[in-house]
Specification:
This protein is α+β, with helices and mostly antiparallel strands. The chain contains five helices and eight strands.
Length: 199
């Protein structure tokens, strides 16, 4: 009986842990403690089994007792549904978090002012799909398309595609772009970004 109960607990927890692992691959977020990971897996398991109970009315594993002997019965169809829900649930959550839909609704309803992303740096780069001009602390400026960027403002990495330096024309005094002639350039924290202009 104790073995069966342990097996039931394991079957209940595994879908949540699978979902949590998939969600961690899909979205950028702050690291969780071990307790936080377990709580998240439990919440995912609760959601998955709530959906599961609406679709399948059978337990994935049952204990059959005949006289003094007992056997375990596995429902393969139920396990397939659990696997499907374990994959689809984090995909839906990942889509909502990446596009900030659920928090956008919360902001619209004046429930919250927060976003789903981990930092303002990540918020701006995710929402502003434009060319940028990066101003460095030494006065240099570079222009390009931010193809890749870090999610952490403490590590300000930005990869610019088709970059060009912005220099001042000594004759006219106006700024002009000078093509570097390379595919892209990775801006690292050592370059000391002072500000970023979104065009």
């Amino acid at each position: 009986m104790y073995t069966f109960q342990a097996l039931q607990v394991l079957v209940f927890l595994i879908p949540g842990f699978i979902s949590a692992v998939i969600l961690n691959v899909l979205i950028v977020r702050k690291a969780k403690s071990e307790l936080g990971k377990i709580i998240e897996a439990l919440i995912f398991s609760l959601i998955i089994y709530a959906i599961y109970s609406l679709v399948i009315d059978k337990s994935p594993i049952t204990l059959i007792q005949v006289g003094e002997s007992s056997t375990y019965s596995y429902n393969s169809k139920a396990f397939l549904w659990l696997c499907l829900f374990s994959i689809v649930t984090p995909l839906v959550f990942g889509y909502l978090v990446t596009n900030d839909y659920h928090m956008r609704l919360a902001r619209y309803l004046h429930i919250s002012r927060r976003t789903a992303r981990s930092s303002v740096w990540f918020d701006v780069f995710s929402d502003q799909k434009n060319y940028v001009i990066i101003d460095f602390a030494n006065g240099r400026r570079i222009w390009g398309w931010p193809m890749y960027y870090s999610d952490n403002p403490d590590n300000q990495y930005v990869y610019l595609s088709k970059p060009a330096w912005i220099v001042e024309d000594p004759k006219t005094g106006k700024s002009k772009s000078v093509d570097i002639g390379i595919e892209g350039i990775l801006i690292t924290p050592e370059q000391r970004i002072e500000s970023i202009e979104f065009l």
